[in-house]
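From the shared-data thread, chain only:
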Amino acid sequence: MGSKELREDALNYHSSNPPGKITVVPTKPHGTQRELSLAYSPGVAYPCEEIGGDPDQAYNYTSKGNLVAVVSNGTAVLGLGDIGALASKPVMEGKGLLFKAFADIDVFDIEVDRKDVDQFVEAVKAISPTFGGINLEDISSPECFEIERRLVEELDIPVMHDDQHGTAIISGAALINGLEVVNKDIQEVRVAILGAGASAISCAKHYLSLGVSRENLTMVDSKGIVTKAREQAGELNEYKAYFARDIEEGGIGDAMKGADVFLGLSKGGLVTPEMVKGMSENPLIFALANPDPEITPEDVYAIRDDAIVATGRSDYPNQINNVLGFPYIFRGALDVRATEITEGMKMAATKALASLARQPVPDDVISAYDGEQMSFGRDYLIPKPFDARVLIWEASAVAEAAVEEGVSRLSREDFDADKYREELESRLGLTRSIMRTVINQAKRERKKIVFCEGEDPTIIKAASQCISEGICKPILLGQEKRIEAVKEELGLDFNCETIDVRYDPRRREDYADEMHMLRGRRGLTKEDAVRQLKSATYFAPMMVRMGDADGYLGGVSHQYPDIVKPCLQVIGPKPDSHRIVGMYMMTVNGQLMFIGDATINIYPDARTLAEIAIQTAKVAKRFGVKPKVAMLSFSNFGTSSEMRTDRIEEAIQMVREMDPDLVIDGPMQADTALVLEIQEDYPFMSFNGPANVLICPNLASANIAYKLLQRVAGAEMTGPILEGLSRPAHVLQRRDSVRDVVHMAAICAVDAQRASRERLID
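Structure, as tokens:
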């Protein structure tokens, strides 16, 4: 995109109605006189009194604990320089957008029209009671150092100048992992830094904390290498002087000779291929000037095929982007009510990012980057900005460090790290929060789950994650050589049981005998059974039936009937199950609901509808939901004279006889099931408020409903969850993501745990 086109698009983006990028949204109801009296006068006086008696109560009664001020005086805005406080506002609003989008933190941008350090500091101090944290932004060097130092000392809330520390934290993670890839010792590497502003100085200090030797770090500013001679000549401020070396003067070319690492925080085009050529073997080149790096990756690779390159740009691998830092650092600091952001908290953020980059990359991240395959290595040193896991890994690491260092208002006894990670996961969506509970349950007793599509990349990545998280013991069906080839292509290294069903002796022996016993009266011979079991879709459920696996998953590369039919034939229903039922768990607009039957029963009779309602409610209870069952129809309680809903009414009566304690009502329209105001017209209803179990009259309506909710309303779907089989088995959907498969594996594992307990009781 040309600069003219980009300019036009950007101006249109920022000026579209409403202008700007952030707004204020009420968090409490305010539609009635009573609600207004609570929000303001007279009710607001009570929290005021509480805070007056104990200032810390502001965290309980106001937005302070989730509100950050992004503050600038506009003296060093992007590459535009000193353009003034007001002109910096679009950048500060953008920072607010990132805080909210990536860490759910609210922001007021504050543009302070003061360049004098004392005046700026006093202005920020004066407004600080409003906020839980202060993010300083785009303030010129060296004033920014003094401003941050004084505010950190004089305020009791976290303060961080992101221009200083953000790049240090992120590039520090890239440094750790880059040196791991090239097998170099951080204490031995030589580092050349081009630039001596706030960011460069902070990076240099952070690298020393990571283990880089001070004698091996050379800083270069616009006048050359930062030397002792220049310090003695009075050319260096105190911040540069800290890095002065007793070496000969020179430029960046001299500093890069034999260097293992180059860090550029200056201007584009200042590094030549010849300079890169003079570096050591397997050099790390972090050319972070924006929008144009000091040297492009293309120019580097033209002369060095052993180099690892990182830039600040999204169109190259290894983007070092500050958005990987500040939202999550403040998230962790705010959540434990930290009084400052310490060096230990910054180090925790760096190490968390480095560790996360070594984990398998989820499919949703890969999809966000046009399907680009990613795995830890030369082109993937740090996580991508759209990796939602960064919130959990980094914020929890920062929070834990704050508690351990004693700068948190929470004590070690009050802080539960595991519970906090679950809280963070809930910020990513209700589904993640619920599934975290399921995953934790699955980890208590690892069950063997067999996957019939063991050669599929999605399944292999999911298996790797299941092993690393301790969710289950995967069994992969497929040719071992193909499985190993896919693992190598994906950069995965894990061990699990693999079975090539073609050569497994059980196929011709025990399994064939069992299949013949099951289906012999349906015309299946022993030879037919042997041939049928050659298919992994039959072999896998037979493993479950015979006790060689605890549960079964399949479907990412098969049609739905190809998975369901073998399950019905081999595993079969529970003795007390009238029907097998398929349902989905869904979260939409913050509500958790279950919908059935969306997969199995095409046009259920009254008895089957009753079974669907009972079975779906049973599953809802397992997820901690107290069921309120709505039997859906086109009319409310038989109001249509054209067509009565006798089948549904009969089903409801059956449910009440079979399970008298189950809350159920209908037939009703979908809006009646969900909207309290409509329910007021039917005071006889068995429940108030939104139903959480929705039973559709037939498969067509259920399938249409859940897919519309998924595609139009953005509902998150988990399933289909099968209920009524004698052993745990679930069907995956084609194009399921790795996260979907992992979630279903956890559900299957917990089902297997429950089945084991039931068999022990029997």
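The mean pLDDT is 92.
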